[in-house]
Design brief:
Glutaconate Coenzyme A-transferase; seven-stranded mixed β-sheet; 10 strands; 24% helix
């Protein structure tokens, strides 16, 4: 059984690849599966002028990703929903952050997959005649491109890639093989593939061979660095405390 360190890195070494102005892609779904320690590192080091690519803008109530918007670190957001966190909404409505357009969730995921596969983009029929309405997205650089194939009109959506991608997993081995749990599975393999340099933050770093092959959600070749995140128990407490704060769970002493 291998005991070498392989791709395991100190978080400072891994996150040094994220200077101000980075185009950064991050795995999450309305707060679920956010790379907490990496986000805290960005906040601590005040890494600003980021272009953030994420499926949503996180969870409301001053939680992890939302703090990046509140701190003014995000210059542009590329995703599917700017209002899942009030901090992102405030940044957008105040003009602090640019949002050129909003994509349907499946479209965004397919654009990321295209980026990870080395494709130029995706042909998507969803929203034709709606999302290209004049004046809907006034900050777009140019009108949305369309193409007709076999009598049907499609948007030509460009592939999404990033200088750095950060994903969040449950376990990883030193070769970078990552195992996910439940909602955090999302499309994080595609996000890893779409980044030139990919960091996997995990709760456990385990020896090679510990993760069954069929449970590898993101193979090691798509990961450049593995960093130690919060333990599973710490992660559960982080989210439980937030849901209690939002009134979605009763206080622990009331259970």
């Amino acid at each position: 059984m291998s005991t070498h360190h392989g791709k395991v890195m100190d978080i400072d070494a891994a996150m040094s690849r994220v200077p101000p102005g980075t185009r950064l892609m991050m795995g999450e779904f309305v707060g679920a599966g956010e790379p907490a320690r990496c986000i805290e590192w960005l906040l601590e080091h005040r890494i600003d002028r980021l272009t953030l690519l994420a499926v949503t803008s996180g969870l409301r109530g001053d939680f992890l990703m939302g703090k990046l918007f509140a701190a003014g670190l995000i210059a542009e957001y590329i995703g599917t929903h700017v209002a899942t966190s009030n901090e992102a909404s405030d940044a957008y409505l105040s003009g602090q952050m640019l949002v050129k357009q909003i994509y349907p969730m499946g479209t965004w995921a397919e654009m990321v997959r295209a980026g990870g596969m080395g494709l130029g983009g995706a042909l998507v029929p969803v929203g034709v005649g709606i999302l290209d309405a004049p004046g809907l997205f006034p900050d777009m650089d140019a009108p949305k491109r369309t193409i007709d194939i076999n009598g049907k009109t499609y948007f030509v959506e460009p592939a999404l890639t990033a200088e750095v991608s950060i994903i969040r997993g449950w376990r990883a081995d030193p070769l970078g093989n990552v195992e996910f749990r439940y909602t955090s599975t999302q499309n994080q393999k595609d996000i890893a593939m779409a980044g030139k340099f990919t960091i996997a933050e995990v709760s456990e770093i385990v020896p090679v061979g510990t993760i069954p092959p069929e449970r590898v959600g993101c193979p090691g070749p798509f990961v450049n660095a593995v960093v130690q995140g919060y333990s599973l128990a710490e992660q559960h407490k982080l989210y439980r405390d937030q849901w209690i704060k939002l009134g979605r769970l009763p206080p622990v002493d009331a259970v």
